[in-house]
Amino acid sequence: MSTTERDLRWWAAANYLTVAQIYLRDNPLLRDELTAGHIKPRLLGHWGTSPGLSMIYTVLNRLIRETGQDCLYVTGPGHGGPALVANAYLEGTYSEIYPEVSRDLAGLTRLVRRFSTPGGIPSHVSVQTPGSVHEGGELGYALAHATGAAFDHRDLLVACVIGDGEAETGPLAASWKAPSFLDPRRDGTVLPILHLNGYKISGPTVFGRASDEDLTGFLRAQGWDPVVVSGDDPAAVYADLHARMTEAQARIADLRAGTATRWPAIVLRTPKGWTGPATVDGVPVTGTHRSHQVPLSGVRENPEHLALLAEWLRSYRPDELFDADGALVADVAALAPQGDKRMSATPYADGGRLLRPLPLPPLDKYAVQVHGPGSVEHGNTAPIGELLRDVYAATTTEDGGGTFRLFCPDETASNRLQAVFEETDRCLRAEVLPTDEHLSPHGRVMEVLSEHLCEGWLEGYLLTGRHGLFATYEAFAMVSASMLIQHAKWLQHAATLPWRSSVASLNVLLTSTCWRNDHNGFSHQGPGLIDTAIPLSPDVVRVWLPPDANTALSITRHCLESRDHVNLIVVDKQPHTQFLTLEEAERHCAAGASVWDWAGTEDGDQPDVVLAAAGDVPTQEVLAAAKLLREYVPYLRVRVVNVVDLMGLLPPADHPHGFPDARFAELFTEDADVVFAFHGYPRAVHQLLHGRVNPGRFHVRGFSEQGTTTTPFDMVVLNRMSRYHLVLEALRRARRAPERGAELAAHCRAMLDRHEAYVREHFEDMPEIRDWQWA
User: Do 681 and 553 lie in a common domain?
Assistant: First the structure.
């Protein structure tokens, strides 16, 4: 028997188990005559892409056996979940991780029964699937994840299958630019395999109808060196695909030696639903959209469909693939690579096994020197850039790689993180011009004008055992919000799997925020990612709103050290008044929220009203409001609270960071009204406070979708979160009416009127606003 014939038996076994998972609840090897009672009541899963996925898996296994190559398999068509589960089972990894799914008839029965059933596993290449770092259910991210996985993993081959439906998505279209960012000196290899079977769920695909000439021309223009493999004869396709993969490895060696310039890529054309029923009820199925999901949908009710299913399953000769006990026969089982070389067992797919602690220097070096609240102005993100610069220095390896990267859509310097360029450059494998700044093919700051790529690269980088941070303009983080949601879902389920190791957290720094994007305009003003994140798993999501530079430093270090979380750090890049020393900031961040006694006037008594803030601009407006109240109505007892850990507002039963009731009362009292200035949409705070006693006493001001190209103070006025609005609200809500309250209210209204006239005449804020200081 030739190598091809032997390997195609593996392919047949994988195809058989794929069909069995979709259809069967019992009788997994057809040892009995197939009956309707053996069929699941709900037929879920996707057949159409699965045979191609298993063919690629089979060829990659041979490549691994022949070369010892470490290989990670990323499947863009995530609906091919049963194929990847089948291959992991054939390799033995599945039974090692899930011993109840043993390598015998009883285990096979459990395998088919758990697929897409209650209490079982999802239909995608989900977190429960050994070897997976990419769920694939939401299309578009495969090549971005694969590229992130390859960064700084020089010895790794990431085989990335891209479905032709997925290839129509925006994120995937951007992802083809990976050759401009992969450095052969230090990075692994991304081998894209554009798998064309011609159809989406109900119609043809664009690339499926394109000519080979147009496809290869497109890929060459993106920097790849593509070849085409096509056909419907399994032996011929297998032999050609193996030859092309072997050639690809040779070209990769040439790239590393500097004698080639383009990364290999493969276009694979095979029929959709390959080896499935050719026709059903007289209608073509194989090679059409009808094979996308369940080609035979009426097998429980239609005897002809049931007979077709039995014929289809037996076409793979399961009696020759599994022995009397239901175990895979020895000569087929021997085709699996050994140990961690199995793609379902590779440590690259369980990145926590490779993760090493990030060396973080003490923060004193970067701290802003604050000699009393309001004594200095400083940019809130600049010290973070200095910290990240030294993290780069501490993690860079001899070959120019490392274990940390910053991802940012062309905004590193704009977001005041440019200190990193003292240690490394922007990465781009292109000609460097004399006018370029901090640009090198070996740079390790990843700038590309695509939030999708930045987010996807970082996710792939983290899930394969490294650390990183994604910094972006706040409003445009919404471009990749869905990716963040999917990553949070992955982490949520990974936490329930003992065999999945902890990975570094996904850290997103949101800066150029809605309040200080006054120079750009309404399109750049939107804090919606907070609202997107807070409903997600409380065991995963954290939202941080540091009020100044030292708290931002403390939070950043905490997030870089954390595991298995999604951290949003929301802080503006512009110069701001600074309030806390580093020591004070550390205590404040550890507490999550604090009463700022130095800002209030309660003097040991219960306050008449509480002013609270979450966010840097809201903090400044609350302090300015507190100062006005102190000047005009000093006998009014005012408490000032600053919240840095937004999730602390939730009841403790709803989030592990939720403040206990007693702690919540210590901060906000049990009955005083609270005027709350919030960085984002007010509804987010109201949502978090649900379940607290008397949440109606919280009166939240925040971003209310009012904005334009205007002055910084006009932004808070437009959204009714200015110091004057906060004072007016506090006067309305205080337990007692102060004697000079009417005078102060009149002052606030007059100042708002004066502001409106002043900014329209002078195009800048009033001097008392521009020059305001706490001290």
Answer: no
What local confidence, expressed as pLDDT, does residue 82 receive? 97
Tell me the three state secondary structure of residue 327: coil
Select from 280, 304, 339 the last residue of a domain.
Answer: 339
Q: Are residues 389 and 313 in the same domain?
A: no
Q: Which domain holds residue 712?
A: 594-770
Q: How far apart are CA 49 and CA 57, in angstroms?
A: 13
Among candidate residues 276, 307, 339, the one where a domain is terminated = 339
Distance CA 573, CA 259 (A): 44
How confident is the prediction for the chain on average, in pLDDT?
96
Do 250 and 290 form a contact (C-beta atoms < 8 A)? no
pLDDT digits (tens, 9 = 90+) for 673-707: 999 999 999 999 999 999 998 999 999 999 999 99
Residue 347 lies in a domain: no
Q: Do 305 and 359 belong to one domain?
A: no
Q: Please indicate, yes or no, whether residues 395 and 471 belong to a single structural domain of this protein.
A: yes
Does 399 score more than 90 pLDDT? no
Q: What is the CATH number of the domain that holds 706?
A: 3.40.50.920
Q: Could you give the CA distance from residue 580 to residue 30 in angstroms, rounded to a whole number?
A: 71
Whether 729 contacts 741, CB under 8 Å: no
pLDDT, tens only, 544-583:
999 999 999 999 999 999 999 999 999 999 999 999 999 9
pLDDT tens profile 199-210: 999 999 999 999
**pLDDT for res 738:** 78
Q: Are residues 395 and 331 in the same domain?
A: no
Within-domain flag for 434? yes
Count of Cβ atoms closer than 10 Å to residue 95 Cβ: 18
Could you identify the residue written with the tokens 């006009």? 714
In a domain, 124, yes or no: yes
Based on the domain organization, do 567 and 601 belong to the same domain? no
Instruction: Report, as an integer, the average pLDDT of 388-399.
Output: 95
> Contacts by 37-43 with C-beta closer than 8 Å and gap 24+?
39/299, 39/300, 39/306, 39/309, 40/116, 40/117, 41/300, 42/116, 42/117, 43/294, 43/297, 43/299
Q: Is the pLDDT of residue 398 over 90?
A: no
Q: Residue 345: left if φ>0, alpha if ψ -120 to 50, beta else—which one?
A: alpha
Q: Please list, in sequence order, all residues whose beta carbon lies within 8 angstroms of the beta carbon of residue 128, skipping any fewer than 6 positions away.
A: 121, 122, 493, 497
293 and 154 share a domain? yes
Q: DSSP E strands: which ranges in 368-500?
A: 376-379, 404-408, 426-427, 439-440, 445-447, 467-473
pLDDT at 396 over 80: yes
List the structure tokens of 767: 């001097």
What's the pLDDT tens digit per position in 37-60? Answer: 999 999 999 999 999 999 999 999
User: How many angstroms separate the CA atoms of 87 and 516, rounded?
Assistant: 52
CATH number for 477:
3.40.50.970
Answer whether residue 262 is part of any domain: yes
334 alpha carbon, distance to own chain's centre = 37
Contact 348/156 with Cβ under 8 angstroms? yes
Task: Render pLDDT for 432-456 as a digit per residue (tens, 0 to 9).
Answer: 999 999 999 999 999 999 999 999 9
- The 3-state DSSP class for residue 389 equals helix
Output the pTM of the full model: 0.97
| Tally of domains in the chain | 3
- Same domain assignment for residues 201 and 107: yes
* C-alpha pair distances (Å), 689 with each of 60, 526, 681: 53, 22, 14
Residue 424 has pLDDT above 90, yes or no: yes
